[in-house]
Design a protein that fits this description.
The chain has 465 residues and is mainly α. 76% of the residues lie in helices and 0% in strands. Helix 4 runs antiparallel to helix 8, helix 9 runs antiparallel to helix 10 (226-247) and helix 9 (200-221) runs parallel beside helix 17. It is globular, with a radius of gyration of 21 Å.
Amino acid sequence: MRMTDGLPLPRRTLAIAAVSFGTALVVIDGAIATVALPTIARDLHVDSSAAVSVVTVYQLTLVMLLLPLAGLGERIGLRRMYQTGQLVFTVATILCFFAESLPFLLIVRAAQAAGAAAALSVSSALIRQIYPAKHLGRGLGINSVVVSSSAALAPTIGGLVLAVGPWPWVFASAVPFAIASLLFGRALPDTPARDEPFDVLGALLCAGMFGLVIGGLESSVHGDSPVVSAAVVVAGAVIGLFFVRREMREPKPILPIDLLTRPVLALSVIGAYTAFIGTMTLLLSLPFRLQHGYGFAPSEVGAVIAPWPLTTMIVAPLAGSLSDRYPAGALGGIGMVVAVTGLIFLAFLPAHPSWFDIAWRMSLTGAGFGMFLSPNARLIIGSAPIDRAAAAGGLISTTRMVGQTTGATLVAALLAIGIGGGTVPPLVAAGLAAIAGLCSLARLRPAIRNPRFAETEDVQPAKLR
């Protein structure tokens, strides 16, 4: 059996369950902590602003480690890396119960993020090996549903846990997902380890580049010294310049420059990056607009935003399945036309919008992004050589995290100059979505879709040729 033919049933079902539980673990643990921040600040006797670092240290560690651990996973084996990450996460979560100070909790959260990064860095590569090539889009669509539903459930789970127990149980609520993933993990494809040296210096440079640039940007958002923040960003950029030049000489670089030299992959990554900036720009700015501009209560904001993830849960797997038969470039272009339309409608809301006025606009926009992201991820994973699938998966996850962080920084900047609570954010998001759509349509050009850069070596019909 070729590696791209997928696993046989029923082993495939068990492997899908393992990856789904692992994905839910990462998403829930990353989002659930926000609910517990006021309680953590009170119990550990720290300011609320300091407690926010419980969330930011998790996100920052994830971004720093995704690509290095993807490279390591290619060498030690995907299943070993995935399950090691689950074990590290579980042990770190147990240590949360012994956290009596913020510094110790931050160390534990960084360890949790390291475990989550180990699992997330190879999850897309595992999906490629679990599903037959003709069903890869469907598999990535199902994974998108797991991500959307987990993100929607995280605040609810956190609130219920805090209602009956202390805040460490908020983090422990994700442990059952880790245990389930470990139990089902025996069914995961067991790729052999490779006798290749791991570029430790490259891994450190990669982590330093992302850590300094993103950490500097986040420190500027939180009102720290602009001079210090700028110096941190510049230091990260200098390390990044040296790192990229060094990676260009590596046969299998940690930063997958070898993949980004393929036009279809480069366009896919640029499109994903702008799309994630656009989604975060809208979703973070909308609560300010709804509360300050239209008088919505905080409890109502969640109900207004909910149609977005709910629609994405329906559209993403459908778009993923369609991408197994139709070009991702066309599907992504259609999706971004829908998203831009929804964003423009959101920019020009009525003077006194009802829940329905906002809900259908959110649903339309969520459908557009859902139609773009699943086929786009399928194209990135499917276009990479099988031995570089982990690097491609790490690239997808890193692009998402960096895009979301960039979007958060952009919203903070717009709010700081007084235009973050009006029509500007959705119009900016519409412009970013338009760029993503152009990148998607550009992949349909014959010069881009050269046989050397085919969407996947196993994609079916001649429609794609």
